[in-house]
Amino acid sequence: MFMIGRTNQWLVAWCNAPKQAPKVSLESSLTVTMELNQLRAFVEIAKVGQLTRAAERLHLSQPALSGQLKALEETLGVSLFERSSSGMALTAGGRSLLGEAANILAAIQQLKQTAQHMQGRPAGRLSLGTVLDPYALRLGDFLARAIENYPLLDIELHQVFSGAALAGVRAGTLDASFFFGAIDDPEVNAMPLRKLLYRVVLPANWELDQRRTEWSAIAARPWILAPETSSHRELVMELFAARGLSPTQVIEADSESVILNLIESGVGASIAREELALASAQEGRIAIWPGAELATTLWFIHSAQRADDPLLMAARAVLREVWREEEAATPSS
Hints:
- By secondary structure, the protein is α/β, with parallel strands linked by helices.
- The protein has 3 domains: 9-118, Winged helix-like DNA-binding domain superfamily/Winged helix DNA-binding domain (Arc Repressor Mutant, subunit A, Orthogonal Bundle), CATH 1.10.10; 124-191 and 298-329, D-Maltodextrin-Binding Protein, domain 2 (3-Layer(aba) Sandwich); 195-294, D-Maltodextrin-Binding Protein, domain 2 (3-Layer(aba) Sandwich), CATH 3.40.190.290.
- The chain is built from 14 helices and 10 strands.
- The chain has helices at 9-16, 26-33, 36-48, 51-58, 62-76, 92-118, 134-137, 139-149, 162-171, 215-219, 231-241, 256-264, 274-282, 310-329, and strands at residues 81-84, 87-90, 124-130, 153-159, 176-180, 188-203, 222-225, 249-252, 270-273, 286-303.
- Strands 4-3-5-10-6-9 form a 6-stranded mixed sheet, sandwiched between helices. Strands 1-2 form a two-stranded antiparallel sheet.
- A hairpin with a 2-residue loop joins β1 (81-84) and β2 (87-90).
- α4 crosses α5 (62-76) and α8 (139-149) crosses α14 (310-329).
- It is elongated and about 100 Å long.
């Protein structure tokens, strides 16, 4: 669950401070009898320095405002102003307490504004499947924006393989999910986010001439595949099927990061997202075979029957903002 708030720091400090059991004392008297209107009277009189002008600004009669100030001084046990023919001047005690009073009023105003911001906002829990790594999904940007724009939206993240993501959306165990690969299902709403390009990558220590090595020689080597429910595995199998071959030695790994690490360690070949493959190849940890590229799409998916669900509409709105910014920040080729 994710929560956000821009609560006044003074109010947060007060909430976090150790609390004592109630006592019959000045403290409990303050809690019972002090009113916000009295604090407003104190702060306004301090601002303008005159009882008459302060009463006009607060839309009160002068006797009513004077009564509020007197009640506050009696509650606090402190004289707040020195009265003279020229106006009202803060006493030493008044100067000490003015900042605290202003902080309380600011915190109350912030509380009201936060509550107003929440009105009419979607509220509830969204179970969201994630695939790949957070950077590829721009997951941090998505969550930060969702928390800011929809503070009553609670998001639960579930890391799954792409096949399980699709199955979860269909079965209703996931409200929505990121997904990559081919999808053609009228019961699933699929919102495209970005294109993904995969490259065939080999251990650098295989010392093959990548430009002259035939596919059959690479196919005969050990291959590292994700589980059968993964779109990553489907892409590899499509690569083999297009060339009339099947992998003969298969090592299964449960995530793309593990697969890349195993390739770098010399265990076997596989495919990797282009941005990861290029970074690793530049550091000399892997080699990229230039004979094949595999393109697919990253989607945001959910049940088509829930297209008008306020929670899902909110999630789609945030994703459009995030990925529109991503497109604007990406240089055109």
